[in-house]
Write the structure tokens for this entry.
Amino acid sequence: MIEIIGYVAAVLTTASFLPQALKTLKTRDTKALSLSMYSIFCSGVLLWLCYGLLIANWPIVVANAVTFMLAGSIWIVKFRAVIKRRAGGL
């Protein structure tokens, strides 16, 4: 029962990133998104993923692997937009 709660929590928190990731990948609009927030968040998620691997806790591993891919894709789009904006402003 405890693992089921972990998997349900993992699905819900991970799924919460899906709409933002799909919208960002579709529109490429990242003006309202903070690069520093996504940088910190992706770092934290990556550390949770490492932690889950080290303790062999699969709800933590799966949730953070998927969340890292979703948040990481948003981070990449945002990072590219920042670089492009800075290059255009020179």
Notes: The chain has a mean pLDDT of 92.
